[in-house]
Amino acid sequence: MNVNAGSMTATYPQPSEDQADNSALLQSLSAAPAALEVSVNGHGPSPLALDRSNLYAPLSINSASVLILYGTVTGNSEMLASRLAKRLHLKGLTARVCDMAHCEPSILALVNYVLVIASTYGDGEPPEDAAPFWDAVVRGNDLDLSGVRFSVLALGNTTYDHFCKCGRDFDAALERHGAARFYPRVDCDADYDAVAAAWMDGVLGHFQRQSFAASA
Ligand SMILES: Cc1cc2nc3c(=O)[nH]c(=O)nc-3n(C[C@H](O)[C@H](O)[C@H](O)COP(=O)(O)O)c2cc1C
Asked: For ligand 1, is residue 12 a contact (CB within 6 Å)?
């Protein structure tokens, strides 16, 4: 397991907790690009996803919104994204699962937490469908993600020269755009199950600590 020496000790702004902040965020999400599509378990836009009132569950930890973004070719990242969403749901936290092939980069600025799960292909390239999103985030300069917290799970294979490069690119780019890494990036080799589960444990642990802190 490769764990990036990320900014585990950084301090982060607290997510908005009051209804006013929630309303503002919901309004901005209402104004989100029409191209925004949210898929649940990879079955395309769902009725639930289109009901923006569901972006917050009453029991959401700190009323934060969590976006799980995946980029995939053969479905591993999508399956892990779905698994993470289910684990978060069991903790009472609403998470949206979105294929970055169908997302506008501006969605990143509309949420409190971004969890990226992405594989690498070709000569260290992103999955083909995710390339426009990757390009905008990794090469672009017009995103302001201050206040956003993120963590990345990178899928790859050490037999390739550019191991997990797509995930590493996202990890560096999100930080460059001002987002705060709340849990270090984890890079997965071919046998990714245990390593991915450990990353999810870490992400869930963070949310649990946030929840306890908020209720203390
Ligand atoms: C044609 C091909 C090219 C790949 N290129 C890379 C690569 O450059 N770097 C890397 O780390 N992994 C590479 N991989 C491994 C995949 O990223 C890995 O199998 C991953 O689990 C696939 O996840 P996905 O199903 O979400 O797309 C490649 C796999 C294939 C089939």
From this structure: no
Using one digit for the tens of pLDDT, what is the confidence trace for 87-106? 999 988 889 999 999 999 99
Query: Does residue 65 line the site of ligand 1, with CB under 6 A?
Result: no
3-state secondary structure of 187: strand
Q: Which domains does the chain have, with CATH numbers?
A: 34-215 (3.40.50.360)
Closest alpha carbon to 100 in 149, 35, 151, 179: 35
Nearest CA to ligand 1 atom 22: 119
pLDDT in tens, 121-137: 998 999 999 999 999 99
pLDDT of amino acid 32: 35
The reported pTM is 0.77
pLDDT, position 216: 65
The answer to whether the CB of 7 is under 6 A from ligand 1 is no
The residue count of the chain comes to: 216
